[in-house]
Structures are given as C-alpha cells and as structure tokens.
Design goal:
Number of helices of chain A: 6
Strand order of the largest sheet of chain A: 3-2-1-4-5
Largest interface: A-B, 31 and 31 residues
Largest sheet of chain A: 5 strands, mixed
Radius of gyration of chain A: 15 Å
Shape of chain A: globular
Helix content of chain A: 40-55%
Oligomer: homodimer
Strand content of chain A: 15-25%
Distance between the termini of chain A: 21 Å
Structural class of chain A: alpha/beta
Amino acid sequence: MGVDPGAANLGFGVVRVEGDHMVALDGGVVETPADMAVEQRLSRIHEALAELITWHEPKALAIEDLYFGKNVRSAMIVGQASGVALLAAAQRGVSCFTYTPQAIKMAVCGAGGADKKQVQRMVGMLLGLPEPPSPDHAADALAVAICHGARIAPASALGPSPVPRPGVATEERLAG
Amino acid sequence: MGVDPGAANLGFGVVRVEGDHMVALDGGVVETPADMAVEQRLSRIHEALAELITWHEPKALAIEDLYFGKNVRSAMIVGQASGVALLAAAQRGVSCFTYTPQAIKMAVCGAGGADKKQVQRMVGMLLGLPEPPSPDHAADALAVAICHGARIAPASALGPSPVPRPGVATEERLAG
C-alpha cells in the first residue's frame, strides 16, 4: 500500500505483486476540506487509512520521503498527515517504508527526473490499467506502492516468505 | 495542555487557570529512542498523549506552530509527532490551538525574542514552582500551555463557560 500525503487530498494505492508483475487492487484519495480544523482533518485521514488497512491487510505501507519546499504552511499539514498515516499502519502491525521522490521515479520510469505525466502513464502501464490513473495523488500513491513492490519482488522469487528490509531503494536494486 | 513536539523528546505540560494566575498540574517528556522505527515512535507518542489526555481531560491542547529550519530530517519527525498529538486530542474531543514561537515568548516573557533560559525562568515563576522546570521540552510545553491560558483567561472572567477561539494570539490579547 502506497500513500501520498497531500494536504487537501491524501492519495492511497494498493498493489499486489503477482510473480513478475503487479496489479492494482485499490486507489483513490481521502479528501478533507481546507476550512476544517487541522486536528479534525487528521482524524478523518487516520480513520480512512485505518479502514483501508483493515480491509486490505497490506504487507507494508510505503510513503514518499518528505522534502519541505517553500510552502511551509502546506509542508506542516503534509508532515502531520504522514504522521497519522504511519500511526494507522503501526497500530495494525504493518511495517512502514519511505522512498525518496527520485527512487520512486526511478522505479516507475527508469529515470529519477521523470515528470508527473510520465509517472502517471507508466503507473497505468505497469499495472495494466486501461488508462493512466487519476487523480494525481492516487497515481503518486500507486507509484510509491510500485516502488516498494519492485524492491521486494526479487526477494519474493527466492522463497515463500520474503521479509522486506527497511531503507531507501537503490537504483541497482530497482533496475534488477 | 501544552505540547512541544520534539523529535526524541516530546514535551508536555498541563496547567490550570485559577482566577488571575495559573498552576502546573503535570509536565514531562515522552522519550522515544532514535533507533526505533518512525512508525513505532509515533505510536508510542500517540499512546502516551492519549493516556495523558484521558487522565487530565484538558479543555484544550496548545502546540507550537512549526517552522521548518535547516534540519529537514528532524523537521519531518517533528511534523509527524505534531500530527499524532493533534490526532490524540481530536479523538477525545479536545480542541487544538497553535501559537507561533513569538506569541509564546511574548505571553511568557513579554518579549517575542526572549531566549530559552528566560522562558524557563518565567515559566517557573508564573506557575509558582520552586525552580525553573526542566527538561527544556517540558518547560517549552508549559510555556505553550501558559500562552493559551493567558489568551482565554480574560474571557473566563466574563462568563461561566468561555469558548476559546482558534487562531494565533496577538500581542494585544496576550498583554491584556
């Protein structure tokens, strides 16, 4: 399960690794109105993710490593949303993994500098979807999930019970 | 109840407004080891704050508004910790308020640029403690709590059931 912790829209995407490819099980966004109190928005996000995790029972939760840009106000709520997402996973015994934007783009597009549209197209292609997934946040969440899936896929071919290892994916593992 | 969302040590402080002054009810830090998985640290912080909120039943939770500095890595966990703190409050129906560091220093020391030691000394004095509270994070959390208490104090003198209003305290209100 991948999560893209946006401010007004938090994206989620669930993929399953099936042999040498992946399929999409779910994807969408959790919307919270900007005029709602921050703690209420976080509560709604936590509740929605808790339900999704309980429903899908993912092996792992993957989330984009946050880099704070110029917009401090949105960075704060993004960090807070990421916190409650990780909490929802931890409360259900689901291990969490973070990936840099570069590692995610490298896993999905083969290039760390790929643009948003390219990521969206490749996510659709890799998951065998009839068209690129939308909205953006759901596509980004599926991309994080693919990134983690690609990282554990080689291990899953080696034994029946692969143990994902934490850390940031390297270009070498993702290319392998 | 005030919260200072530090990375390894999250400070908390509980004060009660009694007429024209405030008293400290509780204060301390929630420590989480740096080598623990982030989601486990967040889970421990959430659990500890949930217990404290259930125990003290605070009227409000006040937290410092986050400004991300140079250390992006620690900014991320601080944002995430702040997220689970707000969630713990929201889940128990406790309203949350944020204050800028300047507003907090202004409320406690009468100067927005006061240094850490000065804040610590004034927190001890305002709460009638025999010595300045420590560690730093607990003192900072008590300072946020005092800041919020100072803001609602004038209103509480006007009626039996004051309704705290969200937003950032102004110097005028704090000085009043």
